[in-house]
Amino acid sequence: MRKQSVLFAASEVYPFAKTGGLADVGYSLPKALSDAFDVTVVMPLYHTVDRQRFGIEGPTDFFDVMLGIERRTVSVYESRFEGRAYLFVYEPQLCDRDYLYGPPGEGYDDNAQRFGLFSYAVSELARRLQSDIVHLNDWQTALTALIIAEDDTLKASTVYTIHNLAYQGEFPKSALSALGVDKRHFTLEGIEFYDRINLMKAGIGYADAVTTVSPTYAEEILTHRFGCGLEGYLQHHRAKVTGIANGIDTEHFAPQSDSSLFRLYKTPRGKHANKKHYLAEAGLCDAELPLFIFIGRFTWQKGIDLLLEALPQMAALPCNIAVLGEGEPQYAPRFEKAAEAHPNIHLFFGYDEALAHRMYAAADFLLMPSLFEPCGLNQLIAAHYGAVPVVHRVGGLADTVAPVAYAPEAQSPCGIAFDAATPEALLGAFEAALGLFNDAKAWSRVATHNMKADVSWGQSASAYAALYRKISGSALK
Ligand code: ADP
Description:
Layout: E1 5-9, H1 21-33, E2 38-44, E3 57-67, E4 70-79, E5 85-90, H2 92-95, H3 111-129, E6 133-137, H4 138-150, E7 157-162, E8 170-172, H5 175-178, E9 192-193, E10 196-198, H6 199-206, E11 209-212, H7 215-220, H8 231-236, E12 241-243, H9 271-282, E13 291-298, H10 304-315, E14 320-327, H11 331-341, E15 345-349, H12 353-362, E16 365-368, H13 378-384, E17 388-392, H14 395-400, E18 402-403, E19 414-418, H15 423-438, H16 440-452, H17 458-474
Parallel strand pairs: 1-2, 1-6, 2-5, 6-7, 7-11, 11-12, 13-14, 13-16, 14-15, 16-17, 17-19, 18-19
Antiparallel strand pairs: 3-4, 4-5, 8-10, 9-10
Helix pairs in contact: 3-4, 4-6, 9-12, 10-11, 10-15
Pathway: Glycan biosynthesis; glycogen biosynthesis
Function: Synthesizes alpha-1,4-glucan chains using ADP-glucose.
Protein name: Glycogen synthase
């Protein structure tokens, strides 16, 4: 039987370009689906993508897309990276930039045109490939759902996944004509949002199915607290909204074969050598103290303010704390101030994939005080590397981190969760973590459970497969 063909479109895909979890999903979900479906992944060919390293060839195809009255020529490149099919769309305005979306905390003014162009290119590729299913991700590709829904000659069914509702692709309404979108879609039911364009609404409103990246976040986004203004619109479309938790690629994130590590390991005991090595690298001392790490984007979503407020009190306790991240400029000086007063805090500002892996291998605990978290991957990676997550019980963190008392029976990894978004609650969880660490047997039981817990794509890939089959069978087109 012919496999159904899926075109998976994302604005970033690991290892070609990555700013966050979307890129990890863009790599690992298509990989997990590739036995059951004929999957092609498409992304922009940013000038930072290393064509030689990834065997990207071309251009193998050209076509024009219309952005309103402007005709743009797009070229297509290809790679069979790790045996899977990747397409890359090149057009100078889309691709020749220093950042994917803009400097940290800002977006480029012409992002509507840039990703509008990408969205048209994706729909044209769906036509050429005769895709059965087009899987769209976040606002950057949301317009494709509207384009496909409006074009009778395009037969694909569409899935739209919300990775983060906080980034909606909002633009002045003047961009409507540049996007070539008919004015009749500029309504409450369409893509209008307080007299502006909202591309996220194109995905939610026009796709055949909408998913988000954890069951709890799927419920939360229907509420005022987490809905970012779209709760009413999501409630209206709730019949087609489901939550499917992300997994991680356990071949890539694998302490027994990860080439970034100082020493490979299969049980938490093997972490000690990595911890000693990392502490030396970071200029921290005393491997007998628990090591807490934070890795992530410096933005309010990640609970950086909570972390900064609690940091001096945490660092006054017997521990080491290491932070890896970058983002909004106001945060780095505040971290530096805390680190000046506490030599057991180590900071690394920047983006460093290999360092992140070494830190996961070294850590006893991961701090993840996110104010909201659609799914979160760090807690899954950290658990798989034998660390215990300390998390704010929201979104995917609530779904993927069970209480430590449930080890070793729990399905998911275990950790310590706090409920109130306050520095006191974070500090309470931090103290509970120290208590766990002081009971070496208890910590080891949890860490051993976490390394064995299933954080792979297995179940979630099956849920996507079932969804693909459902919509392609029941789609009216
Ligand atoms: P996000 O909201 O940023 O998508 P996720 O938890 O879903 O957060 O995914 C974050 C991914 O990015 C993880 O693979 C994490 O290890 C990685 N990451 C985040 N910041 C950095 C950094 N500064 N250096 C290296 N890796 C990072």
